[in-house]
Design a protein that fits this description.
The protein has 22 helices and 16 strands. The protein is α/β, with parallel strands linked by helices and 558 residues long. The protein has a seven-stranded mixed β-sheet, with helices on both faces. Strands 1-2-3-5-4 form a five-stranded parallel β-sheet, with helices on both faces. The chain has a four-stranded mixed β-sheet with strand order 12-14-13-16. α1 packs antiparallel against α2, α4 packs across α11 and α15 runs parallel beside α20. The radius of gyration is 26 Å and the shape is globular.
C-alpha cells in the first residue's frame, strides 16, 4: 500500500500561514505520487509541475472554482481535493481502478471537478461560460504550454477578452515539454507574452514553484482579464526524481519501488512535520513495498498489437515511397512512430503538435500537391477534425488516417480517450473506407493495399492488442494469405460450414473463435470482415455463405 498523508497533517500545515504553504505543496506531491503509484500509471511530471499552482489556488487563496484543462495532471488535483476533505483515502488510491475509480483525466463524476478534460483545448471555453454566469466568483483554468497550439484556446481567449471576464484567471503551466519533446521543438510561440497581450489580456510571468508568488499574481489585476505564465519544471519539486532521470522522461513514467520510497522520504522531509515523519518510520519498519491496486495503463505494446504492426509496416513503405509524408499530433511515442521521426527527413515527418484540425487540413493540402499523407493520432481525437476530414474527402484525394487506441482499448484514460463511435462517424464520410484489421498480418496487408492500390482514402482502426492470430497461422485459411484482395473477408476456418459467426476487429474475433468451443457451436465457421465501405467481392461472399443456414454477426466496435 502506498504512503499517504492524512487530513491531520494538512490541518497542521495550514495553520502555519505562508510557511505552511510550502509544506502543503509537499503533502500534495506526496499524495499525488501515491495516487499514480497505486495505479502503476499516470503523468507524474505534469502533476508535479503544477503542484504549487494548485496549492496556491486551493489552499492559499481558498478558491474552489478550478478547472485543470491539462488533464494529465489529474493526480495533483485529486491530491488537493483529498487534502481539502472532498475525497477520502480509498478514493485517492482508486485512480484508474476500473469504472468506479478516479478517472485518469479529471471527470465531473469526481466531487470538485467542474468539467471533463483530456481532450485538450476545450476547457477554457467551458470555464468562460461558467465564469460569465457567476461574475461574483473567481475562476481559474490551468492550461499546458503545449496546449496553446490547439486553435480553440485562441478562440476561447478572444471570448474571455471580448466579454470582459475579469473573474476568470488563465494560468499557463510553462514546464517546457509536451509528450516527449520540448514545446519549442514541436510548435512553440516565439513570444508568448506578446501573443497573449495581443489578444487583449494582462500578462504576468512568475516562478510557478513559488506558492506565494503565484497567489500574489492571481489575487489582483487591472481592467483586462489576466493570464499568468508560471515557469515550472516537469517533475519539479523533487530532486530525487530529477536526479534519477531528466524532466522529459517523466511524462508517463512511474518510479520503481526504491525510487518511489526515496521521493516519499524527500517529500516528508520537506513538510517538516514530525508526526508525519514518525508515521513514515513505522511504514518503513513494516518493510512494505507499494503495490498497484488500480488498472494498469499498459503503455508497452504487445507484438500482436495492430497499432504496432501498422507503424512497422509504415516504416517499410516510407523507405520505398518518397510520396509518403507522416503527420503526427504530439503522439509519436505512444503511436510507435519514433523510428520514423528519427529516420525520415524533416519535410517527410511533420510534427504538427496539439492541433488536430490543422494537421488534417494540412494533410489535405499535401494530397492536393501529389503526396501520400499518413495522419496519425488517437482514434478519439479525430472527432475534433471531422469537418476538415470531410472537406478532404470532397476533393477526391487520397489520405491514410491512422486511429490508434480505437474502441475501449484505452478505457483506463477516461471518457475523452474512448472511441466507440468512430466507425459510424468515418463511414459517414463520402468515399472513405474503414479498415478494422484483427491482427498484425492483416494490418500490414491492408496498409500495403491502402498505400499502393486503394483508389481513395482509408481510415485504420488500430488497437493495443490483436486477435492472437499471429502465432497461429494454421487458423488463417489459404484464401486470406498475403496478396488476397481486401475485397474478400478473412476466413479462419474450413469453408464447409452450415453455420457461421461474422466478426470484425480483434476483440470480436477472439470472442468468435472462443465461442466455437461452446456446446452447440462446434463446427461453426468464423469469418472476419476487415473493410467497411469498400467494393466487396460479392461472388466470393455468395460462394462462402451459399450453404449456410445460420449467420450471426458480432461486429463489436470495442
Amino acid at each position: 500500500m502506498c504512503f499517504v498523508a492524512d487530513a491531520r497533517h494538512y490541518d497542521q500545515a495550514a495553520r502555519e500561514g505562508d510557511r505552511g504553504m510550502r509544506r502543503l505543496a509537499a503533502l500534495n506531491r506526496l499524495n499525488a505520487l501515491a495516487c499514480i503509484k497505486s495505479a502503476d500509471h499516470g503523468w507524474l511530471g505534469a502533476s508535479f509541475s503544477v503542484c504549487e499552482v494548485l496549492t496556491a489556488v486551493y489552499f492559499h487563496l481558498r478558491w474552489d472554482q478550478v478547472v485543470l484543462s491539462k488533464g494529465h495532471a489529474a493526480a495533483m488535483q485529486y491530491a488537493c481535493l483529498y487534502g481539502l476533505g472532498r475525497l477520502d483515502r480509498e478514493q485517492l488510491l482508486s485512480y484508474k481502478d476500473g469504472p468506479e475509480g478516479l478517472q485518469a483525466h479529471t471527470d465531473v463524476s469526481t466531487p470538485g471537478v467542474l468539467v471533463n478534460t483530456g481532450s485538450l483545448g476545450q476547457a477554457l471555453s467551458k470555464t468562460a461560460a461558467l465564469a460569465a454566469t457567476r461574475p461574483e466568483e473567481p475562476f481559474v483554468v490551468v492550461l499546458g504550454d503545449g496546449e496553446l497550439q490547439e486553435g480553440q484556446v485562441v478562440e476561447g481567449l478572444q471570448t474571455v477578452v471580448h466579454r470582459g471576464l475579469t473573474n476568470l484567471r488563465v494560468v499557463v503551466d510553462e514546464n517546457g515539454f509536451q509528450t516527449a519533446l520540448p514545446t519549442d521543438a514541436v510548435k512553440g510561440q516565439v513570444d508568448r507574452v506578446r501573443l497573449l497581450q495581443g489578444l487583449g489580456l494582462e500578462v504576468r510571468r512568475v516562478d510557478g514553484h513559488d506558492v506565494e508568488a503565484v497567489a500574489a499574481a492571481l489575487r489582483e489585476h487591472g481592467e483586462a482579464p489576466l493570464a499568468v505564465l508560471a515557469r515550472t519544471t516537469k517533475g519539479g519539486g523533487s530532486e530525487a526524481l530529477l536526479d534519477a532521470a531528466p524532466p522529459a522522461s517523466w511524462h508517463g513514467r512511474v518510479p520503481e519501488d526504491d525510487l518511489y520510497l526515496r521521493v516519499v522520504e524527500e517529500q516528508v522531509a520537506q513538510t517538516g512535520l514530525e508526526p508525519l515523519r514518525v508515521e513514515l518510520d513505522r511504514y518503513l519498519a513494516r518493510g512494505p513495498r507499494p503495490s498497484a491496486t488500480g488498472a494498469r495503463g499498459g503503455l508497452s505494446e504487445k507484438e500482436g498489437a495492430t497499432g504496432h504492426h501498422f507503424s512497422r509496416c509504415l516504416e517499410e513503405l516510407a523507405r520505398d515511397d518518397e510520396r509518403i509524408v507522416v503527420l503526427d499530433a504530439d503522439l509519436a511515442a505512444p503511436c510507435g512512430l519514433e523510428g520514423l521521426a528519427e529516420t525520415l527527413p524533416a519535410h517527410r515527418f511533420l510534427e504538427m503538435g496539439i492541433a488536430e484540425q490543422d494537421m488534417v487540413s494540412h494533410a489535405g493540402g499535401l494530397a492536393l500537391a501529389g503526396k501520400l499523407p499518413v495522419v496519425s493520432t488517437y482514434a478519439a481525437f479525430y472527432r475534433r477534425a471531422l469537418d476538415q476530414l470531410f472537406v478532404n474527402q470532397t476533393e477526391g484525394t487520397k489520405v491514410i488516417y491512422a486511429g490508434h487506441y480505437a474502441g475501449l482499448g484505452y478505457y483506463t484514460d477516461g471518457q475523452t480517450h474512448q472511441s466507440l463511435n468512430d466507425v459510424g462517424l468515418m463511414r459517414s464520410m463520402p468515399g472513405l473506407v474503414v479498415a478494422d484489421p484483427p491482427d498484425g498480418r492483416q494490418t500490414r496487408r491492408l496498409l500495403r493495399w491502402a498505400a499502393r492500390e486503394a483508389p481513395g482514402s482509408v481510415y485504420f482502426r488500430l488497437r493495443r492488442t490483436g486477435a492472437g492470430l499471429d502465432d497461429e497461422p494454421s487458423l488463417v485459411e489459404a484464401a486470406a494469405a498475403e496478396g488476397v484482395l481486401p475485397a474478400r473477408p478473412l476466413v479462419l476456418t474450413d469453408r464447409g460450414f452450415d453455420s457461421c459467426l461474422v466478426a470484425a476487429g480483434p476483440l470480436a474475433t477472439r470472442i468468435a473463435l472462443a465461442a466455437r468451443s461452446a456446446v452447440g457451436l462446434e463446427g461453426w465457421g468464423v469469418v472476419v470482415q476487415c473493410l467497411f465501405g469498400a467494393e466487396l467481392d460479392m461472388g466470393f461472399y455468395g460462394e462462402l455463405f451459399g450453404g449456410a443456414k445460420r449467420v450471426i454477426t458480432c461486429l463489436l466496435y470495442t
